Amino acid sequence: MDNSNFGITKKERDCLLTIKRISSSDFPVKLSELSRSMKIKPPTALELVSRLEKKGLVKKNKGMIVLTERGKKIYRSIVFIHRVFEYFLVNCGVDLQEACNKASKFDYILDEKIARLIFQKIGQPNKCPHGREILEGNGII
Amino acid sequence: MDNSNFGITKKERDCLLTIKRISSSDFPVKLSELSRSMKIKPPTALELVSRLEKKGLVKKNKGMIVLTERGKKIYRSIVFIHRVFEYFLVNCGVDLQEACNKASKFDYILDEKIARLIFQKIGQPNKCPHGREILEGNGII
DNA sequence: CATAAAATTAGTATTATTCTAAATTTTTAA
DNA sequence: TTAAAAATTTAGAATAATACTAATTTTATG
């Protein structure tokens, strides 16, 4: 099934992150926007949104798609885990683009507890290799 | 689909590892043995084996299931990646059982190149936390 | 309001995973 | 060596995730 710590699949993870990324911009998050961003057709996007809705991570507000509190919490966890790994991989000599790519493949599988231990181990760096805050970062991966 | 570096799914990865693990023991790897070990019914095990066969990682030899050269190569990669991560996680303070568990969730997703960089970074340890050789280890995860 | 755009529903397809039941093949033991 | 037991394989079905097209419905907008 999902094999993930947060009970979501890779596509659902991508969907969650895309919704957050679009919300941060000027555009309201409409399905058409989401489907454009994810390069999938609207019914496919709707299917993903519905699944996230069923899982309580997303809701619809006047036709706009927004994250629930739970959705935001999971989003923050995923971003934290992502940045910790990305930082670590780049530190090991992996190129930034690839590190980001690889981190995306398991940031939704691991858990925050483990990421926190790694964060400690690597010296609690302030910023990820993209220059974004690792701790309390609320931006985009 | 598979999201994996080796073009296999998590179950196929588990199947590959189980076949290798059983081969190391006295038992010949028969389907019944595999299905028992994986706690799945024989037709399900057969389905997995057939998929691995189609992908060229496994073949049948007088009713016995064996890894092909390609299967062995991928097996070794997965074990190496697994042990490197397991070592790193335990080193960060993650408990061994959990580290092994987590490593199993992405050892088939990452690639050896990255694992080698991490291996260097963490000081090329000889043995994984289970006490098994990390480099040239051919045993069991 | 009428039309255009967006969202949703309906229906289909594929891949992965898993099962049960039945058929076939192989092994083993009398 | 052959009958019974065990193992394997085939057939058929189900579920979940992903994704599509075509059609319908709803919402916006000129």
The shape of chain A, in one word, is elongated
Distance between the termini of chain A: 25 Å
CATH homology group of the domain at 10-72 in chain A: Winged helix-like DNA-binding domain superfamily/Winged helix DNA-binding domain
Mean pLDDT of chain A: 90
Which radius of gyration of chain A do the C-alpha atoms yield?
Answer: 15 Å
CATH class of the domain at 10-72 in chain A: Mainly Alpha
Structural class of chain A: mainly alpha
- Number of helix segments of chain A? 6
Structure write-up:
Two copies of one chain form a homodimer. By secondary structure, the first copy, chain A, is mainly alpha-helical. Chain A has a domain at 10-72: Arc Repressor Mutant, subunit A, CATH 1.10.10. The first copy, chain A, contains six helices and two strands. The first copy, chain A, has a two-stranded antiparallel sheet. In chain A, α1 (10-23) crosses α3. The longest helix of chain A has 24 residues, at 69-92. The mean pLDDT of chain A is 90. The interface between A and B is medium-sized, with 18 and 18 residues. The structure holds a DNA duplex (30 and 30 nucleotides).
